[in-house]
């Protein structure tokens, strides 16, 4: 389950700025989605009859305490914020000039519970980077094959006695990925189904032993235009249509 599960219901319960200022409530992730949605809807501009352009570069300014809590959630939070922006844009038929960039940074001038959003349209090129998320760590995939298992000869070693020394092989050709079980003792699963060999789609989950491996394809955009306020280090970028809908 994601951090922002059922966020649309949560949006109805999100407190406004005045409430937060009065009670010093700490921000919740659902309030970030609410702010992003307002920013998208407010800044979306009709360019032509068939094109509504929305901002794709967002900076979220938070009070230091709120920033510290959100930062501790790691990349999963920003990934889900990006997914929310994608989903809302699809529903509203918004389009972007380039990849989505969401950055958080602390602002000493803000009180706890208060959030400010800055956004802009940034034209950028998108390159695609395949990664494996395993036990909280992210491993970029190189072109060719990558072997995962508990043995030293594996390219990615997992500390799991339920896995074989060479358990699965994942291949990436620059556009698509495949996974193959290497005759492991306990077998492998892909999205809960027994696996021998299969095509990998983004967000597929490979299970070997007690270990879950999530395959992702993350877009990376070119450098964005500079701002007066320099962004901190919590940035994730994505593209509105997703890798498999190019």
From TrEMBL:
Origin: domain of life: Bacteria
Taxonomic source organism: Humibacter ginsenosidimutans
Keywords, comma-separated and alphabetical: Phosphoprotein
Bias (Basic and acidic residues) ranges: 229-240
Region feature (Disordered): 222-246
Pfam families, per database record: FHA, FhaA_N
Protein name from the UniProt record: DUF2662 domain-containing protein
UniProt cross-references to SMART domains, sorted A to Z: FHA
SUPFAM superfamilies xrefs: SMAD/FHA domain
Entry keyword Endoplasmic reticulum: no
Domain FHA: 146-195
